[in-house]
Design a protein that fits this description.
metal ion binding, about 40% helix, hydrolase activity, acting on ester bonds, 9 helices, globular, alpha/beta, about 15% strand, TIM Barrel, TatD/YcfH-like, Metal_Hydrolase, TatD DNase family protein, 8-stranded parallel β-sheet
């Protein structure tokens, strides 16, 4: 088994040939994909893709870049939309201070709303964080004190210290193709030492194509290349890493069924 725990099958670059993209993923050994939403206008199409494809699951959420443009997406709306058979997660959500496409306070409000939705629905939250480690960790910890929830730090590129904080809160860490980049030495060191029972792999396709595909449009099939690199980095057999990360996926996203 091999799972792409985070991709955007309905984004430009993949949607135009989605059937072929899915076929290539399956040929590469990918047995499940989690199709992530980032804005409300995508929700129906993303869920429809999951309803149509038995190995695709979906999420409901608003990316921090989109927080300013979605003031009406409240707890009730997220909970209602998440109550669908093929929706297995809340997000992606979080904080992005690198681009600051949305006001930081609005991002924080939206992040907390998503955590509340995760807590209410029992679904895991998918967390995006970039240049916002301290605030992300603080909000997650404060919210954890109000009631337990679970989730994953997707496309992890943060510090080892942040990883430790997330793991101590019971969250998972997902590694993308960035780990294969030559300039990702710190990330490689952290990824090599992450606990195997909390590790996921992803593509974030159509972004972040791993070596040897850099410069190309990313797609779920490429998660195999990230998994091979990660297995070698950690001194594991490729098949073992595929199996363990797949088990972790189904443990975290328990509403999904293999």
């Amino acid at each position: 088994m091999l799972v792409d725990s985070h991709c955007h099958l309905n984004y430009k670059g993949l949607i135009e040939e989605q059937d072929a993209v899915l076929a290539r993923a399956r040929e590469s050994g990918v047995t499940a994909m989690l199709n992530i939403s980032t804005r409300e206008s995508e929700w129906s199409d993303i869920v429809a893709t999951a309803n149509r494809e038995k190995d695709v699951w979906s999420s409901i959420g608003i990316h921090p870049h989109e927080a300013d443009s979605h003031p009406d997406v409240d707890l009730a709306k997220l909970v209602k939309q998440a109550d669908q058979e093929r929706v297995v997660a809340i997000g992606e959500t979080g904080l992005d201070y690198y681009y600051d496409h949305s006001d930081r306070e609005r991002q924080k409000q939206s992040f907390r709303t998503h955590i509340h939705a995760a807590r209410e629905t029992g679904l895991p939250i998918i967390v995006h964080t970039r240049d916002a480690e301290d605030d992300t960790a603080a909000i997650m910890a404060e919210e954890m004190e109000q009631g337990a929830y679970t989730g994953v730090i997707h496309c992890f590129t943060a510090s080892e210290n942040f990883a430790r904080k997330a793991l101590n809160m019971g969250l998972y860490i997902s590694i993308s193709g960035i780990v294969t980049f030559k300039n990702a030495k710190d990330l490689q060191e952290t990824a090599a030492n992450l606990p195997g029972d909390r590790l996921l792999v992803e593509t974030d396709a159509p972004f972040l194509a791993p070596v040897p595909h850099r410069g190309k449009t990313g797609e779920p099939a490429f998660v195999a290349d990230t998994a091979r690199f990660l297995a070698e980095l950690r001194g594991e057999e490729y098949s073992e890493l595929c199996d363990s990360t797949s088990r972790n996926f189904y443990r975290l996203f328990s509403k999904a069924k293999p």
